[in-house]
Amino acid sequence: MTISAIGYVRVSTEEQAKEGISIDAQSEKLRQYADLHDINLVDIIVDAGASAKSLKRPGLDRALATLQSGEADALLIYKLDRLTRSVVDLGRLIDEYFKQYELLSVMDDLNTSSANGRLVLNVLTSIAQWERETICERTTDALQYMKEQRRVYNHLPLGYRDNGGMLQPIDDEQITVAEIFDMRGKGMSLHQIANELNGRGIVGKRGGAFYASTVRAIVNNPIHQAA
Question: Are the C-beta atoms of 160 and 168 separated by less than 8 Å?
Answer without folding.
Answer: yes
